[in-house]
Design a protein that fits this description.
The protein is α+β, with helices and mostly antiparallel strands. It is 31% helix and 18% strand. 41% of the residues are buried.
C-alpha cells in the first residue's frame, strides 16, 4: 500500500517568523551565557586593557585686599574619598556604613546633606531651615514624590531605590544620606565621592592601615577654602562658598552652563562648590577654575598602569579688591567699641541709647570711588562659620536676634537725618534759590529751640539760629532753614539732585546692595496706600531735613559724600581693583573708573558748601571731636527720628549718622557712619575719627586692637601714653630671651603633675608618604540732640600734630617726632549739644 506523500509548503510570512524566532532564541541564550554563566569572566575581560577618563578639578582663585593680604585663599586638606574605579557594588552599602562608623570613631565629620533627621523618639522628620534641600529631595529629578510627601515617605523610597531595607533607623539614615549625596554629586568613575574633607593626618594614617579592607576607599590631598588669619575682618564683603543651591543652578541653566560630559565638561555640577554671596559670588566667573581630564589605563588584572593628562585643568584667577585691611580692622573695632559704650545706665539724665546694638561704616577713595572699608556690626567669623556646627547654626537661626549675617553697610537702609542737608544747600545755591548769605527763615520760638511753622505743621529745630546764613545753617544744623529751602526748591528738584548724588539709587558696586528710597509723591502714596494718607507740602519740608520716607544705605551715603567732595561728579562705586592669574604675578585686567553722572556743580557753590561743612567741624555740631584735628575735615552730623513716639512711650530711638571727607582742600577719603537707634552723642563721629587717624597715619592699631601713636608708644583712646616704645622694646627683648636658670634635665617640680605620654601618631598611608604638606597653599610664590561729652562714653581720641610743612601727615621725617595734642573739653550747643528738640515730626 502506498502512503500518500505530504507536501509542506512554507509561506513567505511563516518563514520570516521562524527566522526571527530562531534569531532571538540564539540571542537570548548568548545573553544568558554572557551575564549568568560566564558573567564574571566577561566582566573581568571588559576591565582588561580599559581606558577610563577621570576629571581633574581646578583650584579656585584667591581673593586679596589692596596690599595683597589673603582674604580668601586655599590651603592643603586631606580627604577620604570613594573611588568608583575600584568599588564593589555589592558591598557598597556595607562599606559606606563601616567608613562612616570609623570617621565618627576618629572624631571626624562626614558630609551629611540629607534633610531628614531622627527626633528624640526615633521618628523621621524634616530638618528646619532646609526647605531648598527638601524640595530637591522630592523633585522629579530625585524621588519624584508629591509636595505633601512626609519624611517617612521619602525614607521608604530612598531605601527601596538604594536596596537598603530592614535595617535599624540609625544605620538606614546613615547609608541613605551618603547614597543620596552620591547621587546629587553625580558619583561616577569620572567623579569620586568625598566622604569627609579636612580630616587630620592621624585619620589619614588610620585609613592607610585599612587600605586593603575596602576597595575604592582612599585618602587624597586637595585644596580647600580658608579666610585668612582674621576670618572676622570682612565676612560680609568676602562672602562664603558652598554646595550649588537651586537658585544658582537655575541661573546657570539659563546660561546653558550646566555640566555635560560630552559637550561641556567645564559646566556646573550639583557637587560643585560655588560662591554664594559677597565677592565669592560677585566674581564667581573669575574665581572659578576650569576642570580638566585625565586618561587612566588599566591592565588585564584591572590595575591602573599609567595615567595621562588629556585636558589640563586651569586654576581660577586671583581677584584683588580695593579693601584696605588695616582700615577695615579699625572700622570694625571702633564700631564695636562705640556701640558697646553707647548704653544707657538708667540713671537720671543719662541720654545714651537704650537699644543701640548695630551699625555700619564705609570709606571710599574719592579719586575713583574705590571702597576702602565696609564694616557691618555685629559681624561674624568666616572660618568658624564655614566649619559648621553650633556656631553656624546659631547665626542662621539668628538666636540672639541681631542678624549678624546681614550686611548693613550695603543692604541696611536708614533714615539719614541732617546729613542730607548739604545736598539741599547745593541744590538751592546751584538753582539760584539762595545766596551764600541769604537768610530764609527766622529760627525762633517760645521755648529753648526754634520752631518751623507751615500750615498746621510745626517742626522743632535743634537750637535758636535766628536769620541764619547757609554757613551757620549747615554748621548748626538748622531745621527751620532747610525746611523753608526745601519748600522753595520743591520735591521734584530735591528728587533730581538726590539722583545726581546717588541717593535712592544703586551705587553700582559688584556686590549685592539695596536700592534705598528717595521719597516722592508717587512713592509716598504707594507706601501709604492702606492708610489713605496723601502727599502734602509738609512732606517736602520733612524730606529736606532727611526725614519723611527717605531711606539710604551707608554705602550710598559714602558715595554721596564722595560726590560732594568731587564737585558733583559721581563715579561707579566699586570693590574690584584688578584680576590676576592664579599665581598673582600676571595682571589680566585692571578696573577702569566709570563716570556715572556729572551734575556740573559750579565751583562757587562747591566752595560755599565745603566751607560750611568745615565750619561744622571747627565750630559747629562736630567741633567737640574735630575742632583741632590736624587735617581739615568737611563734615555733617545727623540725627533721624525712627518713630512717632518717644522711647519712654513705646517708640524707638533715633539713628545717628555722620559723613565727612578729608582733607577738605584736596579730598582723598570720604566716610559715612550709621548707628542704629544710637539716640545721641559723639559715637558715630568717634568711629569716623578713628578711621581718619588710621588713614592719615596719626595712630595705628595692631591685630590685637592695641593703639599706638606716631612715636610707637602704646596709648589709650585719649592719646595718653601707657607704655613708651622703649619700654615695649625692652619687654619684647626680655620675652625673646631664654630662661636664665633652666631646670636640670631629668628633674621635675614635685608640685607639678608629670606630663602624660602623648599618644602615638599613626603613620600616613605608604603610597602617600609622610611628608604631605599641611600649610597654606597660594598657587605660587532727633527728639533730643546728641550729647557729646557724656560720662562713660568713649571720648574722641586726641588729635596729633601733622608733620611740618604738609597739609596732613604722610609719615615721620628723620629726626621729627610729632606729639599728639589733647582735645578740648566737649562743647555744648548745636545739633549735638543736647539742648535741642527733635528734627521734626510727621506732618499733620
Amino acid at each position: 500500500m502506498n502512503l500518500p506523500h505530504l507536501h509542506w509548503k512554507l509561506g513567505r510570512s511563516t518563514a520570516c517568523v521562524l527566522v526571527v524566532v530562531v534569531f532571538f532564541a540564539a540571542y537570548t541564550l548568548q545573553l544568558f551565557n554572557w551575564q549568568i554563566i560566564n558573567g564574571e569572566a566577561y566582566e573581568q575581560e571588559a576591565l582588561s586593557h580599559r581606558t577610563d577618563v577621570v576629571e581633574i578639578e581646578a583650584a579656585r582663585g584667591e581673593i586679596l585686599d589692596r596690599e595683597g593680604n589673603v582674604l580668601a585663599g586655599n590651603h592643603i586638606v586631606y580627604e577620604v574619598i570613594y573611588n568608583a574605579l575600584y568599588l564593589e557594588d555589592s558591598k557598597r552599602n556595607e562599606t559606606i556604613l563601616q567608613v562612616v562608623d570609623l570617621l565618627e570613631e576618629l572624631g571626624e565629620s562626614w558630609r551629611d546633606r540629607l534633610p531628614i533627621e531622627l527626633d528624640e523618639e526615633g521618628n523621621y522628620r524634616f530638618m528646619e531651615n532646609k526647605e531648598d534641600e527638601i524640595e530637591t529631595l522630592k523633585s522629579r529629578d530625585m524621588l519624584n514624590l508629591a509636595d505633601y510627601a512626609t519624611a517617612d515617605d521619602c525614607m521608604r523610597e530612598l531605601a527601596r531605590r538604594y536596596r537598603y531595607e530592614g535595617h535599624s533607623k540609625e544605620d538606614t539614615r546613615t547609608v541613605l544620606s551618603v547614597r543620596y549625596s552620591m547621587t546629587r554629586d553625580q558619583f561616577s568613575i569620572n567623579d569620586p565621592y568625598v566622604f569627609a574633607s579636612g580630616v587630620s593626618p592621624e585619620t589619614v594614617g588610620v585609613f592607610g592601615e585599612q587600605s586593603n579592607r575596602w576597595k575604592g576607599i582612599e585618602t587624597r590631598v586637595n585644596v580647600d577654602r580658608y579666610y585668612g588669619e582674621e576670618g572676622s575682618l570682612a565676612p560680609h564683603v568676602v562672602g562664603v562658598t558652598g554646595s550649588m543651591p537651586t537658585w544658582f543652578k537655575e541661573e546657570q541653566e539659563e546660561q546653558n552652563n550646566l555640566y555635560n560630559p560630552e559637550e561641556n565638561i567645564g559646566g556646573y555640577k550639583d557637587s560643585d562648590v560655588v560662591g554664594l554671596n559677597g565677592a565669592e559670588y560677585a566674581f564667581e566667573a573669575e574665581l572659578r577654575g576650569q576642570r580638566g581630564q585625565q586618561s587612566v589605563f588599566s591592565n588585564e588584572a584591572g590595575e591602573v598602569t599609567t595615567t595621562a593628562t588629556a585636558i589640563a585643568p586651569q586654576e581660577g584667577r586671583t581677584v584683588r579688591l580695593t579693601l584696605d585691611a588695616d582700615l577695615q580692622r579699625v572700622a570694625n573695632w571702633s564700631l564695636e567699641k562705640n556701640i558697646r559704650a553707647n548704653v544707657n545706665t538708667g540713671l537720671k539724665g543719662d541720654k545714651k541709647a537704650h537699644d543701640c546694638k548695630a551699625g555700619a561704616a564705609v570709606a571710599i577713595d574719592i579719586s575713583d570711588f574705590a571702597v576702602l572699608a565696609a564694616s557691618s556690626y555685629p559681624s561674624y567669623d568666616l572660618n568658624l562659620y564655614m566649619a559648621g556646627g553650633q556656631y553656624q547654626e546659631d547665626l542662621l537661626l539668628d538666636k540672639d536676634g541681631l542678624k549678624a549675617l546681614n550686611d548693613r553697610a550695603l543692604n541696611g537702609i536708614y533714615t539719614p537725618g541732617s546729613v542730607f542737608k548739604p545736598l539741599v544747600a547745593t541744590a538751592g545755591l546751584q538753582e539760584g534759590i539762595i545766596g551764600a548769605g541769604s537768610p530764609v527763615y527766622d529760627c525762633d520760638g517760645p521755648g529753648l529751640t526754634g520752631v518751623f511753622k507751615y500750615a498746621d505743621l510745626e517742626l522743632a529745630c535743634t537750637d535758636k539760629h535766628g536769620w541764619a546764613s547757609v554757613y551757620s545753617a549747615i554748621a548748626g544744623s538748622c531745621n527751620c532753614y532747610f525746611c523753608e529751602l526745601g519748600l522753595r526748591l520743591g520735591i521734584d528738584r530735591l528728587d533730581a539732585y538726590a539722583e545726581y548724588f546717588g541717593l535712592g539709587w544703586k551705587t553700582g558696586v559688584e556686590l549685592s546692595e539695596a536700592t534705598g528710597v528717595m521719597t516722592s509723591p508717587s512713592e509716598y502714596r504707594e507706601r501709604h496706600s492702606e492708610s489713605g494718607v496723601d502727599w502734602t507740602e509738609g512732606n517736602t519740608a520733612q524730606a529736606a531735613i532727611g526725614q519723611s520716607d527717605n531711606q539710604f544705605t551707608p554705602i550710598q551715603l559714602a558715595t554721596y559724600c564722595a560726590t560732594l567732595a568731587n564737585g558733583g561728579r559721581r563715579y561707579r562705586t566699586h570693590f574690584l581693583s584688578e584680576v590676576l592669574d592664579y599665581t598673582g604675578k600676571e595682571t589680566i585686567r585692571r578696573y577702569e573708573p566709570e563716570l556715572l553722572y556729572d551734575a556740573e556743580i559750579r565751583e562757587d557753590v562747591q566752595g560755599v558748601v565745603r566751607n560750611a561743612m568745615i565750619q561744622t567741624a571747627t565750630s559747629g555740631t562736630a567741633s567737640s571731636v574735630f575742632s583741632d584735628y590736624p587735617v581739615t575735615v568737611a563734615c555733617k552730623t545727623g540725627t533721624a527720628e525712627t518713630s512717632g513716639l518717644r522711647w519712654e512711650d513705646g517708640g524707638t530711638e533715633e539713628h545717628i549718622s555722620f559723613i565727612c571727607y578729608a582733607p577738605a582742600e584736596n579730598p582723598q577719603i570720604a566716610i559715612a557712619v550709621m548707628l542704629e537707634h544710637g539716640s545721641s552723642g559723639p559715637f558715630a563721629m568717634n568711629v569716623a575719627k578713628d578711621m581718619l587717624d588710621q588713614y592719615f597715619g596719626f595712630y595705628s592699631w595692631d591685630k590685637e586692637g592695641n593703639r599706638y601713636n606716631q612715636s610707637g608708644d602704646l596709648v589709650d583712646d585719649q592719646g595718653k601714653v601707657l607704655k613708651t616704645k622703649e619700654d615695649l622694646d625692652k619687654e619684647a627683648a626680655a620675652s625673646a630671651e631664654p630662661s636664665a636658670d633652666p631646670e636640670p634635665a631629668g628633674e621635675e617640680d614635685p608640685e607639678e603633675e608629670p606630663s602624660p605620654t602623648p599618644e602615638p601618631t599613626p603613620t600616613p598611608a605608604p603610597e602617600r608618604g609622610s611628608d604631605i604638606p599641611d600649610h597654606i597653599f597660594t598657587g605660587g610664590s532727633p527728639s533730643s540732640a546728641p550729647e557729646e561729652g557724656e560720662e562713660g562714653a568713649p571720648q574722641p581720641s586726641a588729635s596729633p600734630t601733622p608733620a611740618p610743612d604738609s597739609p596732613f601727615y604722610y609719615g615721620k621725617k628723620p629726626g621729627e617726632d610729632p606729639e599728639p595734642t589733647p582735645s578740648p573739653e566737649p562743647a555744648s550747643g548745636g545739633e549735638e549739644s543736647g539742648e535741642s528738640g527733635g528734627e521734626g515730626e510727621e506732618p499733620a
